[in-house]
Design brief:
Blueprint (H helix, E strand, L loop, with lengths): L4 E3 L8 H5 L3 E7 L11 H4 L4 H15 L1 E7 L3 H10 L6 E5 L8 H10 L3 E5 L21 E4 L4 H24 L2 H8 L3
Parallel strand pairs: 1-3, 2-3, 2-4, 4-5, 5-6
Helix pairs in contact: 3-6, 4-5
Bound molecules: ligand CA2.
């Protein structure tokens, strides 16, 4: 089975087989300072590096037959651009907006504008932390939020989003009028 993932912090892998197979495509975005994972504040964010976290996500993506595109940025504008760009070519988004969770109307608006199913992930339990971290501008436009489960949260988000997208694909197919189903199959 070919690997079908890309990583903006490394080489980009494009595999035409993935497009032929019509695999689900999910963009995974890490917000500011998450590039420091595993180097400090280990009691809050754990010991795993961002590269190790990305590898675990890619491993599960392969198992689920999903294409993932993983990116990290310290810039709000860059995250907004990547969310906007996901409108073409992606089926869903997983995002840990990090500190922008609590401040960014721009990221919230971008997610609402593209209309892609989005899961919000936090390593720490933001609801048990300082008051300013307990408010998320993103939660209201996400299909769900996973908070406090460490790196496992990303893996659960990937499984959850995969199931959500698979179910909506199936629903679209079965709710299409019989004539268009026949047309799609090429039968009369
Ligand atoms: O718990 C999370 O995943 C957060 O999104 C992490 C953000 C924080 O601002 C949110 O309130 C909750 C901070 C990410 C910074 O990550 C670091 C990792 C290692 C060392 C320093 C920062």
């Amino acid at each position: 089975m070919p690997r079908c993932w890309t990583c903006s912090r490394g080489i980009v892998f494009a595999n035409p087989v993935c497009e032929q197979k019509n695999m689900l495509r999910i963009r995974v975005l890490h917000g500011p300072n998450l590039n420091l994972l595993g180097t400090r504040e280990q009691s809050i964010y754990g010991t795993l590096s961002l590269d190790a976290l990305d590898s675990a996500i890619m491993e599960l993506a392969e198992e689920l037959d999903v294409t993932v595109d993983l990116r990290q940025s310290n810039s709000e504008g860059e995250l907004v651009t990547w969310i906007q760009e996901a409108r073409t070519g992606y089926d869903g988004i997983i995002i840990n907006p990090a500190a922008y969770t609590h401040t960014s109307v721009a990221i919230r608006d971008a997610i609402a504008a593209v209309g892609l199913p989005t899961v919000e992930v936090h390593l720490s339990n933001i609801h048990q932390r300082e008051e300013f971290r307990q408010r998320s501008y993103i939660a209201g436009v996400a299909i769900g939020q996973i908070s406090g489960l460490g790196p496992t949260g990303y893996l659960l988000a990937l499984r959850g989003l995969h199931d959500h997208l698979t179910a909506s694909r199936h629903q679209k197919k079965t709710s299409a009028p019989a004539t268009s189903r026949r047309a799609a199959k090429g039968t009369k």
